[in-house]
Structures are given as structure tokens and as C-alpha cells.
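Researcher: We're teaching a course module on how sequence relates to structure. For the next exercise, students receive a sequence and then see the predicted structure as C-alpha cells, so they can try to spot secondary structure elements on their own. Here is the exercise chain.
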Amino acid sequence: MSFPKPFYRWRPHPWHGLEVGPDPPRIVSAFIEMTPLDVIKYEVDKETGYLSVDRPQTGSSSPPSLYGFIPRTYCGEAVAALCDDVERSDGDPLDICVVSERQIDRSEIVMRARVVGGFQMIDGDEADDKILAVLDVDPVWADVEDISDLPSPLVDRLEHYFLTYKEMPGRASQVRIPLVYGAEHAQRVVEASMADYEVDFGVGGG
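Model: And here is the predicted structure for the students to work with:
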């Protein structure tokens, strides 16, 4: 049986089989792993591409926005080079938070997201940037091009979530956010993660 292009005979791996986006680094694809209603930390299994349970959320807060990653990105040396305090990154696809005015209550979906800023998060001694974006087709956020265009309480809530979401009782947090950045730097991080992906997974990569 023949399959017309671009029909997928088999489900593509969300990290390696989907496109990075229609106009990166400004407009990217986001594969959503978690919604604001989730109290379980879900992650895509790197081998199979299926969503798996990582752990229950240890705190009382849920993610303030949709949360996932940008396909065909990788946090390696180029991403780490943009952070003064570390020498390496976490070795995962680049994380992204997507703000939507209408509530979206399901994960394992793909959406077009407009990059507007991000958080330079350091987990232990590894760079673990979180890109902040808005749903590109959302009319409420149509004029948002930079993190400064978003309500500051929303940005503060996201920052607080990432500072606390890995806290464990009786254990000090290893997470810090030395920099909250705008669209220009965020797009540089996206470009760096795309370059890291090509080094590790592109032609001749690992």
C-alpha cells in the first residue's frame, strides 16, 4: 500500500519526527506534555516517544501554562555557552511554556507558538532554559511580541513555579533563575538548541 506525502504511515517520534516550526526561531512548534490541570509530571519517553509518568508533583502548585518542548532541539554546548554560570546543559530538548487565553486541558498535542522570552534556569550545575511563548493563533495575545508585553503577575507565577516545582521535603532546592530574558535572547537560545541538535542528531551526529 502506498502512502501519499506528507502522510505518516507510522506515528512520528515527537522529538525527532516533527518539524521545529514554520519560522524558527520566532515561530516554533511546541509538543505539549503537561497542562495547568496536571498534578503529575509527565515526560515523553526518549526511546518510544510516548508520554510517560515521571513523578507526582511534590508541591501544591500546577504549571501555570501549557508545558512541553520544541521538536528537533537539544540543549548541549551551544545552549550552555549562552549561560555564564555553567559549562553544560541538561541534554534534553528545549523546554517551552505556551500561554493560551482559552483553557486547553489535553496534552500530546502540537501547536504553533510565538517565542517572546524565557527563563535562564540552572538546575544544579546544568543549563535548563525555559522558553516562554504565546499560542500564535490566539487573538487575545496577537500583539504580544516580547515578555514585557505579558502581564507581570503571569511571568512571576511561571518563575515561581520553576523555582519550586522540584522542591522535596527536607531537601534544599538546586534550582535558580539568574536571568529572565526577552524575545531577542530567547530566539538565540532556540537557534543554539537547533545547532546542538544538528551536532548530536543531524547528518554525522551521534
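Model: If you want an answer key for the exercise: The chain is about 15% helix and 30% strand. The first strand starts at residue 27 and ends at 34.
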